[in-house]
Amino acid sequence: MKVDIIIPVYNALEDLQRCLTSIYCHTDLKKHRLILINDNSPDNQVRPYLDTQKKENIIVIHNESNKGFSHNINLGIRQSEDRDVILLNSDTIVTKGWVEKMLACAYSDSSIGTVTPLSNNATLCSVPNFCENNTLPVGMDINQAGHIVEECSMKKYPRITVANGFCMLIKREVIHLVGTFDEATFGRGYGEENDFCNRTEQMGYIHVMCDDTYIYHSGTKSFVSKEKAECIQAHEKILLERYPTQMHKNMLHCQKNPNGWVGRNIAYHFDIRNGRKNILFLLQSDFKEGADDNVGGTQLHVKHLTMGLRNQMNIYVVARNREYLQVTAYVGEKEHPFRFYIGEPEIFPLWHDRKMSELFRLLLKEFHIDLVHVHHTASTSPDIFQEADRLNIPILFTLHDFFAICPCVKLLDAEGNFCIDQVLHDCAGCLRKRQEQYQTDNYLDIWRKKWEVNLTLCKCIIAPSKSAEQILRSSYSFLETPIQVLGHGV
Fold first, then answer.
1. Residue 19 in contact with residue 36, Cβ under 8 Å?
2. From 442's CA, which of 14, 249, 399, 436 has a CA 20 to 30 Å away?
3. How many CB atoms lie within 10 A of CB 483?
């Protein structure tokens, strides 16, 4: 499928040069056409520069008088009768695959009339912050931003109320049906795309955001502030008179930001691309205020680790909170929360939980985890060991209690006595009384064999004391995994 890319030009030569450089790098101009329309720019360098760009599939048109933005768009549209068009500002920088991705979005649904990509500065399509002129994180360039947006996109192509003319794909069938821009009313610009979009919507088409495509937009430099303000005021009044219901709907969209998840997702991915390692802590309950069972030794220890390391590494704290697996990414001083429904906790521990296994695999891959530090699996499953090992991610395990030795956790018998010192152990009776385990003859042996596999997969086991290390070694005499004694709080 072929498109015409229409760029109205008025001064701003440096912006135009950057824009064309990006187009030549990321656009198949053997297939698509570029239409450059010089609206009688006063800058005497613009015309000769544009003339040097002429070649096959690059059309240059010079207006002998200033016609205005809407006229130039219509002039570009009339250069063919069968191609879709992309309207593009000259102060933009495009990224890899931009045309192909916008076309894929446009033809994903027959009801789509226009497509607008994401940008740092595109009102409804501004990311990460909605309706703002965003700056890229320090050290990130435009091509990197485009790659991240594409990589993290869910390709939902969410609906928006109006397109944004900074970069706007229009299907030719819509132009045949609706017509072109109203240049008589919106000559110099501002509001012309809203007028067109409202007419398009009335004819049964919708407008969508291409959420896997990012194009940088520096902002309008053709209009002086006073002129722009006057256009905004006058044209806003016209739009309100013509389309009161649609303008109200657009206002509500701006207030509610129904596609806010797109920006939040990108904000998270922008934040974590900081060159730091990604560490995952798994524990039985989250330490966050408001979470179930958020006060305890393990929770406090992991909280101290997280707060101490969050400015050196990206920390992912994973823990059950009621029916959800709660994941919080701590990136410097920022926090990004996620949660995944996993249902009620199991009555008895599972050796393998398919749902948890798939979720762990997803988290490890999508968050690019470099190290897994298991603190407790009582409320989830030990599948984290196998999944991390399959992905060649190193694993640490901290012995907070004795869950890895006995499901009763504290090594206290049914009467509350420390059973490790007893000559005779009634493990079967204890398990029946405390865990309701009636298949008890070999349950503890099975438990330890399963856990020995998990412990063998670890690079290191951390014990809080020398006595805890000795108890673990007495239960797993053939375990070769190194054990390091490191007190809590260190």
1. no
2. 399
3. 21
Angle between helices 443-456 and 427-435 (to 10 degrees): 90
- In order of 406, 412, 477, the CA distances from 426 in angstroms are 13, 11, 21
Q: Where are the beta strands (DSSP E) in 40-162?
A: 58-62, 84-88, 92-93, 112-118, 159-160
Tokens of 179: 């017509």
270/417 Cα distance (integer angstroms): 53
* Cβ-based burial of 90 (10 A; exposed 0-12, middle 13-18, buried ≥19): buried
Cβ atoms 487, 424 nearer than 8 A = no
Asked if residue 128 has a cis previous peptide bond (ω within 30° of 0), the answer is yes
> Is 374 buried (19+), middle (13-18) or exposed (0-12) by CB count in 10 A?
buried
What are the Cα distances from residue 359, in Å, to 64, 343, 362? 63, 13, 5
Q: Are 76 and 37 in contact (CB under 8 A)?
A: yes
Nearest 10 degrees: CA dihedral of 251, 256, 257, 260? 180
Per the confidence metrics, is the pTM higher than 0.85? no
3-class DSSP assignment, residue 100: helix
CA-to-CA dists, residue 186 to 161, 219, 242, 301, angstroms: 19, 19, 13, 63
Are 124 and 160 in contact, with CB atoms under 8 Å apart?
yes
Mean pLDDT of successive 10-residue stretches along the chain, which has 490 residues: 97 97 98 98 97 97 94 96 97 98 98 98 97 94 97 95 97 97 86 96 98 92 64 91 97 97 95 94 95 92 96 97 96 94 85 93 95 96 97 97 86 74 65 67 84 97 94 91 86
Structure tokens at 339: 């949660």
- Smallest Cα–Cα separation from 5: which of 40, 29, 26? 29
- Give the three-state DSSP class for 113: strand
Q: Which residues of 260-280 are buried (b: 16+ CB within 10 A; e: fewer)?
A: eebbbbbbbbbbbbeebebbb
> Which residue's entry shows tokens 């890895």?
404
Reported as type and span, the H/E element at residue 246 is helix 244-256
Q: In sequence order, what E strands does 387-474 have?
A: 395-398, 460-463
Q: Residue 402 is which amino acid?
A: F
Asked if 207 contacts 201 with a C-beta cutoff of 8 angstroms, the reply is: yes
- Three-class DSSP category at 460: strand
